[in-house]
Every structure is written in C-alpha cells, then in structure tokens.
Amino acid sequence: MIGKLNHVAIAVPDLEAAAAQYRDTLGAEVGPPQDEPDHGVTVVFITLPNTKIELLYPLGDNSPIAGFLEKNPSGGIHHICYEVEDITAAALKLTTAGARVLGDGNPKIGAHGKPVLFLHPKDFNGTLVELEEV
Fold first, then answer.
1. Termini Cα distance of the chain
2. Do residues 47 and 29 make contact, with C-beta atoms less than 8 angstroms apart?
3. 85 catalytic per annotation
4. Residues 98, 103, 108, CA angle at the centre, nearest 5°?
5. How distant, in Å, are the alpha carbons of 91, 113, 115 from that of 49?
6. Facing residues of 131 across strands?
7. Closest CA to 120 of 97, 134, 133, 109
C-alpha cells in the first residue's frame, strides 16, 4: 500500500529565511511560496534528488501551523508524506486496522493538486502522517 516518501514537512517561523538557507547555504532548488488557504498554510517546496522538503508557514488566524510554532518557536518537523496509489482504498484499509484519519475522513486537495489525508500521530509512533494519491 505505502509507496515512496513524497516529502518531509518542516514548520518554520520565517519562511523567507528558511528558503534562503536551503537555496544559498545548501544549494537546493527552491520553489516559490504558494498559499494553500484550505490548509491554512503557505508552502515552499525544496526539490532534492530523491524527495522534497516542504516548508510550512501559517496562513490565516486558524492555521494549524501557528499552534505548532507556539509550542515549537524555532520550528521543526511537522509531518512526513507517503505516496499511495488509491487514497480511498488506503483510508479504508487503515481505518479497518484501527488507524484514525483526521478531519472528516474525506481527502482534500493538497499543495500538489492531488488528494491527501492525514493520519493521527498517536497511531504512528508520534508522527503526523500525510498520504498523497499519485
């Protein structure tokens, strides 16, 4: 069921500074900021040879990233994203096995324009997991 690692998401307190660090210090390919109002974030994707890094910054008053940054003012890893071929089938298999899908259980369109779901961190060793249909 689980496929490739799609990205590692890092919440950051300063999006421009974090993007500059990846671009200027690490020499990575850094994309432009992209607002995702349905998810309450602005994202910047860093393209690596084998995966991506997704920098997350709060967008709007109800951003889940704002709460994360209140607890972790320096930022930190927020979630990891795995690819799945069929997100509906994956969600059914996971919920049948006892895993909890966050929100209303229905996929939303993510930053890549594809359906995504998030899984409760308590069900995955303290890690928030995102699944993205490819």
1. 12
2. yes
3. no
4. 110
5. 29, 21, 23
6. 82, 117
7. 97
| Dihedral of the alpha carbons of 124, 127, 133, 134, in degrees to the nearest 10 | -110
Catalogue all structural domains in the chain, each as residue range(s) with its CATH number.
5-133 (3.10.180.10)
CB 89 within 8 A of CB 97: no
Cα gap 85→88, rounded to integer Å: 9
Would you give per-residue pLDDT tens digits along the chain (134 residues)? 899 999 999 999 999 999 999 999 999 999 999 999 989 999 999 999 999 999 999 998 889 999 999 999 999 999 999 999 999 999 999 999 999 999 998 999 999 999 999 999 999 999 999 999 99
Task: Please state whether the predicted TM-score (pTM) of the whole model is above 0.85.
Answer: yes
Q: Which of 16, 36, 83, 130 is catalytic?
A: 130
Burial of 62: CB neighbours in 10 Å, binned 0-12, 13-18, 19+? exposed
